[in-house]
Every structure is written in structure tokens, then in C-alpha cells.
Amino acid sequence: MVLKLRKNRGPEPPQPCMLTECMAVISGAWAPNVIWSLRAGPRRFNELRTDIPPISAKVLSARLSELEAKGVLVRHVRRTSPPSTEYELTPLGAELLPALDAIVQVGHRLKERKLNSPEKQVAE
Amino acid sequence: MVLKLRKNRGPEPPQPCMLTECMAVISGAWAPNVIWSLRAGPRRFNELRTDIPPISAKVLSARLSELEAKGVLVRHVRRTSPPSTEYELTPLGAELLPALDAIVQVGHRLKERKLNSPEKQVAE
DNA sequence: CGGTATCCTGTGGGATACTG
DNA sequence: CAGTATCCCACAGGATACCG
Predict the structure, then answer these.
(1) pLDDT in tens, A56-81
(2) Which of A4, A36, A68 sits opposite B47 (nearest CB)?
(3) How far apart are CA A46 and CA A54, in angstroms?
(4) Residues A117, A118, A124, B1: what is their CA dihedral angle, to the nearest 10 degrees?
(5) Among A88, B103, B120, B124, which residue's beta carbon has the most beta carbons within 10 A?
(6) Does A33 touch chain B (CB under 8 A)?
């Protein structure tokens, strides 16, 4: 694909395109939150809405559809008198949890580091 | 991406918010690619531009600034005759690599699963 | 309860041109 | 080479209203 301008500075980097595709699984501002909220077990639509900060019904619905299509979660509909729907992570979807956790861990350390080091911290 | 808590609509669970904050470290469409491209060692501005699909100079510049401010990478400027700048992951930034890798692994499996599963859904 | 449809806005990001 | 400035647009996402 793209020609690299490398000279003598390190081995061949992997294809970023692939990363982008995979990152797309958790794209959308709330997708990680949805996955995270489902880590303890199945939850219903409105439970997710109240779990997750102020996510709009439209967006939650959209994320759930996408994640379902991607095989990250499954949807169980119960046609009871009050309609209820449960969403649950698939085994594959659950595998994302360690990854998210890893990101959280690093995020924490980055925040701590910034608090501890009085060096140049350029604010945006 | 901006997280606006516009209205107070109820209890805010701690976990998802934290997740969102930490996810913000790798927010922006190209941030993960930048981190990934630097995983093998320091690289220069235009090397990154050609490494990463078609990222515009403006956006690459913006991501690099953000990631630098967040402590994920450092910038080394060399005032040589042809100016050159190198970007390199900090140790903390490097800790994001396993997380990204984990996401990539799951992303792969999800793609395989969709190819193999007979009940293959239509992607968007 | 569990959504969908419509409208609207903010902002991430591309293209281009320009600077040091 | 390594950016910055400007303009512009697409689209994610919020609010509201409405349906099954």
C-alpha cells in the first residue's frame, strides 16, 4: 500500500488499517460503556440507559444494534405483558473486557503521572 | 470526544465514567494508529503521515499534540539543516500497546466468527 | 417498557494554502 | 521537513415526539 519513508529507524510497523477496523468494534462514544455495563450479566434497555451517564435512547439503540450485528452482544426479547428486552455479551464480546480494563489501567496511571510530575503539562 | 453531562438525570455510576475518561486517551479516529505506528520505535512526522492511511497533516498534528499533552508520547525536535522531529512513546504510552493488541485480537475473532456463522447478519 | 423518526447542533476531520 | 490557518462538510449524538 503506502510507501514508507523509513530510513534506518526500526523494524516494519504493522498495518494500522487493521487496527482501525478492530477499533471500530468499540467505536462510537458509548460502545465501551455499553460493553462495560454488561460485564456483570444481562441488562435491560432502560437499565443500560440509567447505568450509562446521559445516553439518549436513540444512540443507545444504535450502539446496541451495531454491537449485536458485530456479534459482541445478543438480544433476548420477552413478549411479556410489560415488554422487556435483555442484552447480554457474547463470549467473544466478553473478551473485550480485559482489553477495556487494560486501557482503564493505563488511563489511571497517566492521570496519576500528570498529577505527580510538575513538568510541562500543556493544556489544550 | 466531548462528554457533556447536560442534565442531571439520576445516579451516575462510577465505572462507565471512568472508562469513558480513559478511553478518551485513545479517542480521535487516528490516535490508536499513531500509538501503533510508534510501537517499533521513534518516527518522524512525515513517516507517520505515510504510515497511517490518508491522515491529514492537520489531524496528525492535532493528535500528536494531544497525545503529548496526555503523556503518551514525547516529541524530540532536532534543529538540523533539514528540520526533523521524532515522536516516541513514553513507557506509559507503551503500556497501551497490549490493550490495543487485545482489541485487535478480539476484532479478528469477531470477523472470523461472522464469516463462519451461517446466521450471518448484514453489516450496516 | 422499548424502541423509532425527525430535527438540529458540535466537532472531528479533509483539502488547500501558507509559514518557519 | 514540519507544521499552522482557514474553510467546509459529514456525521455522531442530543432533544423531542411518537409508536407497538
Answers:
(1) 999 999 999 999 999 999 999 998 88
(2) A4
(3) 12
(4) 30
(5) B103
(6) yes
